[in-house]
Amino acid sequence: MPAPDTPGKTMMISGKNSVMRRFPLPILLCLLLSVADGSVTLRAAARAAPPVDPAAPDVAAAAAERPASGAAKARTGVRRQEGRRPFTLDIPKSVGDGEAFALRFGAEGAQALDLDLDGKKLHIGAPSPASGFFEALLPVPLDTGKKRLRLALTIQWKGGGKEVLTRIVAVKKRDYPVQKLTVDSKFVSPPPEAAEKIRRDRAEMRAAVTSTSPVQYWRLPLARPVPGEVTSLYGSRRVFNGVPKNPHKGVDFDAAAGEPVAAVEAGEVVLVSEHYYGGNTVVVDHGLGVASAYLHLSGFNVRKGHRIARGDIIGFAGDTGRVTGPHLHLSFYVLGESVNAEPCLEAERR
Question: Which of 50, 67, 92, 201 qualifies as a cystine partner to 275, CB 3.0-4.6 A?
Answer without folding.
Answer: 201
